Amino acid sequence: ELVPVHIAQKKGDDIVVSVAADDAWAFVTTMCGRFAGAIRDELKSAKAGVTLPTLSAGMVFHHKSQPLPDVLAKAHDHLSLAKNSTRGDGASVSFLDLTADGDRAVGDRAFTVEELTTRAGQLDRVSRIPAAQRTQLLTLLRECHETAYRSDDVEPPEEALERRLGTMRIPVLMEIAPDGDSGRQSRVALRRALDVARWWRPVRVEETA
Fold first, then answer.
1. In the 8-state DSSP scheme, what is residue 103?
2. Are strands 57-61 and 92-97 parallel, antiparallel or unpaired?
3. 63-85 residue pLDDT tens
4. Which of 43, 56, 146, 156 is the most buried (most CB within 10 A)?
5. pLDDT for the residue 122
6. What's the burial of 66, exposed, middle or buried (CB within 10 Å: 0-12/13-18/19+)?
């Protein structure tokens, strides 16, 4: 499926690409996958042990009213994070969603393209969870991260999250947080999946390996 894309040369081998938010994940996984395939085809005769070039991306989801220089600066920051996450050993993506979290991302936002491809089916299912339920979970996850002082008469957000997961009993969430676990590792995994799912649209993504 073709999507509208605006491409502008930036400097060196970096380019700026603008697509609709709904198309972003499908575009970046397809772009990185095709790049990897083209490089492999071009360098079939390369000696064993030669490190092949990879393509990484820094993505920013934003409203059209956001000043472009600010968006480009944040995209550059996340491109650096993506590259550093794999040290050039694989295609990767790091992202910031200004429409949800403002200027700062919470936690690790870097993914390898291989991880996104492998988990595409799981992310499809998370994206199909009603938006209201995803928002409830994200609100509790933010409270788990942000709450420093708690009153004894208020349910701790970790307990509220565990109770909510137990009430929902959504299979894909139980895969990510087994038995409704609200421990830190499960919270991080849930947050990453839900943050991606906000703009993820169920599509087939190309293999990168």
1. T
2. parallel
3. 989 998 999 999 999 999 999 98
4. 56
5. 95
6. middle
Say which residues have a Cβ less than 8 Å from residue 97's Cβ, sequence separation at least 6. Answer: 60, 61, 105, 195, 198, 199
**What kind and span of H or E run contains 9?**
strand 6-11
Read off the pLDDT of residues 119-175 as tens digits, 9 standing for 90 and up.
999 999 999 999 999 999 999 988 887 765 455 657 888 889 989 998 998 999 999
Tokens read off for 53: 């070039």
With 0-12 / 13-18 / 19 or more C-beta atoms within 10 angstroms meaning exposed / middle / buried, residue 152 is exposed
pLDDT for the residue 36: 82
Q: Give 142's Cβ-side CA count (13 Å radius).
A: 13
Half-sphere CA count of 203, side-chain side, radius 13 A: 18
Provide the Cα torsion 178, 114, 26, 42; round to 10°: -170
Digit-coded pLDDT (tens) for 105-131: 666 678 999 999 999 999 999 999 999
Classify burial at 17, counting beta carbons within 10 Å of its beta carbon; exposed 0-12, middle 13-18, buried 19 or more: middle
> What local confidence, expressed as pLDDT, does residue 209 receive?
40
Residue showing tokens 């009993």: 169
The C-alpha atoms of residue 55 and residue 65 are separated, in whole angstroms, by 29
Cα Rg of the chain (Å, integer):
19
The model's pTM: 0.83
